Amino acid sequence: MTYGFYFDSTKCxxxxxxxxxxxxxxxxxxxxxxxxxxxxxxxxxxxxxxxSYVPSGVFGYFVSIACNHCEMxxxxxxxxxxxISKDDETGIVTIDQEAxxxxxxxxxxxxxxxxxxxxxxxxxxxxxxxxxxxxLGRKPVCVAACPMRALDWGDIxxxxxxxxxxxxxIEPLPENTTNPSIIINPHPAAQATGSGxxxxxxxxEELDLAE
Length: 211
Hints:
Layout: E1 3-8, H1 17-25, E2 36-47, E3 53-65, H2 74-77, E4 84-86, E5 93-95, H3 106-109, E6 116-118, E7 123-125, H4 131-135, H5 141-145, E8 151-155, H6 156-163, E9 182-185, E10 199-201
């Protein structure tokens, strides 16, 4: 059995309840998010013949993403100490905090930006799919908290039978190079990875993404 997530972008309103529930449950500090809700927008406003500004090609949608516990985790392949491992039974990818040395090599390796450096500890953490909740027979807190039921979780094969294959290559997500354990039902306005004309807005208010 390999666990995974399902996300329905057509249902997501960008309320960020999943993001907040994750942050509160795991006691994440400033500049640390295990789950992010991206607000992807594009288009312009143009003046018409009457002198009024009207939207031209305006669109927007939300993408909720965490660690995707990939089939081929780039973070694990680039971990200098072997602190990152993938469970053979569940497919959950975790970081052993005692083995982590905070070298950060996993951070740029992950195409989804899942690993996050904690200044206070000097170590790297990321979504662990709420293994403690799963052990109690419950779903990850992000899934349980979503008021729109835009998130689901379970055996990835069962999720695919229920929801179909979906499409993970939508903006602002990267090309699929790691076989992520997530199914995404794209918003009708979703643009293909690499061909998008929009940009992520608002997230910098919660997380410093400056390079």
